[in-house]
Design a protein that fits this description.
It is a single chain. The chain has 106 residues and is mainly α. It folds into two domains: 43 residues, no CATH class; 62 residues, no CATH class. Helix content is 55%, strand content 11%. The protein is built from four helices and two strands. Strands 1-2 form a two-stranded antiparallel ribbon. The chain is globular and about 35 Å long. The C terminus is likely disordered.
């Protein structure tokens, strides 16, 4: 599977945000620099979440998705867990473990 430029940029934005939540500013700068090198453009955020083994895509601010409640429950849980890990003193290995987890609901 090959990703297109837009998908790569969206992935890098997510990586940058996770680093920022973990206060790993050098990594944030490195990721953002890579984005600029690749010709980053600001666009409306798009996210994906896995529900019942299906990957669901939605745009920032879109509340019309048929699984919107489950999507936001999953995102809230993920955000809480990342913040919990980021507030720990030594987040590096735990954050990596958290990023490698698969989040399921239902």
């Amino acid at each position: 599977m090959e990703l297109d430029q837009e998908e790569i940029m969206e992935y890098l934005v997510s990586v940058s945000n996770v680093y920022a939540m973990a206060r790993r500013w050098r990594e944030v700068a490195n990721v953002r620099e890579k984005m600029v090198e690749m010709g980053s453009k600001n666009s409306k955020s798009r996210s994906w979440v896995q529900l019942n083994e299906a990957v669901n895509e939605f745009m920032a601010g879109d509340i019309t998705h048929r699984h919107i409640s489950l999507i936001y429950e999953t995102l809230d849980r993920l955000t809480s867990e990342v913040r919990y890990v980021a507030n720990d003193h030594d987040t590096s290995e735990e954050l990596i473990d958290l990023l490698e987890m698969e989040f399921f609901c239902c």
